[in-house]
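I am still learning, so can you show me any protein sequence you like together with the matching structure tokens, please?
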Amino acid sequence: MSLYGSFLSDEQFQCSICLDVFTNPSSTPCGHSFCMPCISRYWDGSKVCQCPLCKKTFQKRPDLQINRTLREITEQFKSMKGGGGVGREKRGGKGDGGTQDNLFDELKKKLPRPLPKPPMTLTYEAQSQNKSMPTSFPPVTSPLGSSVPNNSPIFSLNHTSAPPPLDPFPRSNSRRRFTLSGAANSHNIPICDIHHRGIMIYCRTDQMCICPECETEDHPDHDTVSVETEWMETKALLSVSEKEIQEMIKQRLRKIEEIRMSVTDLKLAVEQETVGSVCLFSSLVMAIERSQAELMEVLEFSQRAAEHQADAMIRQLELEVEELRRRESELTKLAQSQDQIHCVKTFPHISTPPPAKDWSGVSLNSDLGTGTIYRSLAALVERFQEELKNVTETGFPSQDLEPSPVRTQPRMKRVQEYAMDVTLDSSTAHPRLVLSEDMKSVRCGDRHQLLPDNPERFDRVVCVLGREAISSGKHYWEVEVGGKTDWDLGVAKQSVNRKGKIEYTPSNGYWFLSLRDKSKYAFRTEPSTDVHMNLRPHKIGIFVDFEKGQVSFYNVDAKIHIYTFSHVFNDSLYPFFSPCTNKSGKNDAPLIITPVNMIE
């Protein structure tokens, strides 16, 4: 019997589903082969596809193709089996060794190349003798991966200087075998340094190319395919990767151009800044003197305003404490009373706490308002005074201490972001007031106008409200006051009394700043707070933060914060304007609501 006749049998060409010789064989991704119709029927109706042999699960049904090489080999086997040789050999008969040799010659034609003739001497020995020889040739397997039985003879090789040839029948333990396509050139296949076998398998699990021996020893149960198969799948992704790379190149070229344009813009900005800085030299001394005067004014005013605010809050708290103690005393007396009927009737009235203000969001305003002055001065003299530059970077010395828990007031540029378009409400205007057609300015006339005495109209004080209600959020507007000797500006609650004599205080729903006799500035607090300002404002900015309960006033021209009221608002607010009486023409100039121009 010939050598190859010892391992060719029906089982090597048998489908494990129909138990018959392959018909249009197809291989699964795990490496096992079945008839195309058999494996298709086996997977039909299944939610998850599974290999019938190794039970490997595929989440997506594989797109199987006919293994043309295996089909041709199977057809050759069927034609040779018709002579009776192979079939009888498998069933125990002696068979015809010559027929099997002819079959092997036909199988060799289907391989990628003829078996090479290695420069070595071939000797026949028993397997038991071969175990002690390190140069033994790997066990011979069939073209479809079936190993030679352990008790069959093997071949030992006496190597010369040439490396061992590529084994055309790699060993496998029922694993998938890979066949080179006819276009592949076996001479170009690299050889494994460890097993001296052709590297023709790619392990997707470990992402490396391996030989059949490596697959059996080091990569059991891994997801393996032929290198050619992996390359064909990878090649399909090359165009996608190429497009991605091209898009990345375009993005970076655009960014280069953008940076170059930015450099050009920067050069222009530097030139403009240089010209502008020269103009600052002539006003340097004047700017320092003005900043010093502003600083002293703001410091003095901030201190007095904070002290007054603290006194007002303490007085109000003391009144509430006094009322609570009175209730406490009444409850104590009630507890000692023996009159049960009196206790039952009286307790509901005195057990409920009296109406009290929510002080959880109220805090003392301790912002000195000097940060803007220092920043403005530093921008002008930063190249001349290094010490002043350090002040700009580190801030006022008191800022080195622990940060104060009180809320700081927003600066001019920040509050201007909340600009609101304010117009006057003619239905609230006092009969002596004259409003412009655009409802943006108001002045006091010489006589009363014939107007309906509706409930919204003020009848005693010459004032008018804005049309826009403020019930949430942040809002800011500016009013020009230059040329006037007297005026009132601020906000008022919607529910304020508008008839007869009115006390314009925060407790009555009014928060505003007043000017009298050209130079007497005051806030209508309880009692009123006088304000000394060396720089007479020509434009006043009013900022309302409804949620925080703050109404702030700013000198727009000097860019400084003047004062902030703190209160818990429970009613809508409206802008409040009073040009005061015209004083026989001396105070005839109007209050003008002006557009907000952002301060740089």
